[in-house]
Amino acid sequence: MTTDGHAALRAAARTALACLDLTSLNDADTAAEIEALCRRAQTPHGPVAAVCVWPRFVAQARAALPASIKVAAVANFPDGRLDLPRALADVQAIAQAGGDEVDVVLPYRALLAGKTTDVAEFLSEVRFASRPLTLKVIIESGELGSSDRIAQATRLALAADADFVKTSTGKTAVGATPAAAATMLKEIAASGLSAAGFKASGGVRSVADAAGYIAQVEAALGAAAVNPQRLRFGASGLLTDIESVLSGAESVATTSAY
After folding, report:
1. Residue of 103, 163, 209, 241 marked active site
2. Cβ atoms within 10 A of the Cβ of 83, count?
3. What digits encode the pLDDT tens for the residues 96-139?
4. What is the pLDDT of residue 250?
5. 4 is catalytic
6. What is the reported pLDDT for 85?
């Protein structure tokens, strides 16, 4: 790689670190593992944007982290059923435990079944209940399949005043892809919502992948959108590659999307 290539990769790694939601959402997560996650979030190269955990670990994560690192937790996760009481209970638990951000799964199967009004009402209720927390709506783009469905889900999330529209839970066969990102970013740009952001999640493992999404965000939303207020990466393994690149070593991850 050329000197300019190394410099560009390091710049992408710094941006990805600042925009990273360091995530642990394994069914068998333990308090000890969340403690280790919170330690890892405070790297020698700087802090991540947030840690993302199950609602039951929010209080622990909040106590372990400085206020500058947000605590996010998931709701209606990962299956995204059209189950408003469950989603609202998750939101309430996150807020009461001191969480800063909610990542809620849009009921994508209901959307595929044509229940657009029900999905819109679900998102509106979750948005109302979650204020003033940051709300990220996971549309599960890989399951929606077509660009038209991805665009429709993105519009529904934005209409409900979501702060971010997020690609995936990371629990299905297809996570974030450049094509899905392009569709989502087009809808965000067209919405005229100057504060709405994009989160790539599911299979983002290398700095090269992150660099591709950073370029897409900059092209669609402008350079001013390349910051944690409008761009996030949801990942666990990405931090290893970020640290490798920022330490001056070669990338240790194989790029999957770019």
Report:
1. 103
2. 15
3. 999 999 999 999 999 999 999 999 999 999 999 999 999 999 99
4. 80
5. no
6. 98
| 115 catalytically annotated | no
Strands 42-43 and 46-47, bridge-based pairing: antiparallel
- The catalytic position among 21, 100, 136, 199 is 199
> Which of 70, 100, 166, 241 is an active site residue?
166
Q: How far is 57 from 28, CA to CA, in rounded Å?
A: 12
Known catalytic residue at 199:
yes
Instruction: Record the pTM.
Output: 0.96
pLDDT, position 251 = 83
Residue 3 is predicted with a pLDDT of: 66
pLDDT at residue 37, rounded to an integer: 98
Give the chain's residues under pLDDT 70. 1, 3, 254-258
Which residue ranges form the domains of the chain, and what is each CATH number? Answer: 3-246 (3.20.20.70)
